[in-house]
Design a protein that fits this description.
It is a single chain. With about 190 residues, the protein is of the alpha+beta class. Helices cover about 30% and strands about 35% of the residues. The protein is globular, with a radius of gyration of 16 Å. The model is unreliable at about 1-5 (pLDDT under 50).
Length: about 190
């Protein structure tokens, strides 16, 4: 796990509504849970009218325990999770060394910020984002960038409210299909 030695395992504990959330660095044993959260959030966000075989195959092949475990063991990846009394409910993934999709972005990407939909509006996304930004700052990155689907109005509004600026567009690809994504950047 990237830079786990630079960061204590438990970063912070917060009480949000009726649940207490511990914000901590992910462990390899979290991989199957992160895979399940990824499938839940990805399908719920991007598949609006029904799941077809194309998207089902993508989700089931992309978000596997093995792939998430390998990611957690990659020194260029840093994953922070939110955990309540019942289990994990969200995570942020910060990736080092990523090629910038547009000019003037650093090589530090917020690759994933997923919070289970039933926990939206409680501040978990903001808390996870703050921890990801703190991590980026601590390892010396001047800024971070991320992409989000151009039709994902909720995510776009969230990132703009958190101080990100739109700096361009790129495409997210699944096989030969391309989906327009906005690129956002924030100084840390």
């Amino acid at each position: 796990m990237a830079a786990a030695g630079n960061c204590p395992n438990t970063l912070k504990t917060y009480r949000i509504t009726e649940l207490t959330h511990e914000i901590r660095v992910a462990r390899p044993s979290d991989a199957p849970i992160l895979a399940a959260i990824s499938i839940e959030v990805w399908l719920g966000t991007y598949i609006r009218r029904g799941v077809n075989a194309f998207f089902a195959e993508y989700a089931l092949n992309e978000f596997t325990s093995d792939k998430l475990r390998a990611l957690l063991e990659d020194r260029n990846e840093h994953v922070i999770v939110s955990e309540n009394e019942d289990g994990l409910d969200g995570f942020i993934r910060v990736s080092h060394g990523k090629a910038e999709p547009v000019a003037n972005c650093s090589s530090m990407e917020i690759s994933t910020l997923y919070v289970q939909p039933r926990h939206h509006g409680r501040g978990l996304g903001r808390l996870l984002l703050e921890q990801g930004l703190t991590y980026a700052r601590n390892v010396g990155s001047p800024s971070v960038w991320l992409t989000t689907n151009s039709e994902n109005g909720h995510a776009i509004a969230f990132y703009l409210k958190q101080g990100f600026e739109k700096v361009g567009t790129t495409n997210f690809r699944i096989q030969d299909q391309a989906y327009l994504n906005d690129v956002f950047r924030r100084m840390v």
